[in-house]
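Hello, quick one for you while I still have it in my head. I'm working through a protein record and want to make sense of it properly. Would you mind checking whether the tokens look sensible for this chain? I owe you a coffee for this, so here goes:
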Amino acid sequence: MAHFAEIINNKVGNVIAVHDNELLVDGVEVEAKGKEFCEKTFGGEWVQTSYTDRIRKKMATRGDDYNRENDIFVSPQPYPSWTIDENFDWQPPVPKPEGLNYWNETKQQWTI
């Protein structure tokens, strides 16, 4: 079984599981075969994703961005003050200290 993400205007719409019967060629999973199945069945554009994060950086979830240039899924920006780094991970303006778990956007600081 493999998972495929529907891409609408570079955003993830739905994420579905596709049975091996639709993907395997001589016992080997073939992304193009799964993609073709999704497109024929549901229409639109589909890209494979993986809950083990083995492809395209992370498991796609609804609302993620699909970065075509780097062929990866990127989570939405969590707060307006956060910036994305060279690894496409969102970083706060202040590093997270140990023991504090929540970002307060108004105060621009970490809290308990």
User: Anything to note?
Assistant: The first strand starts at residue 2 and ends at 8. The radius of gyration is 17 Å. The chain has a mean pLDDT of 95. Residues 31-42 form the longest helix (12 residues).
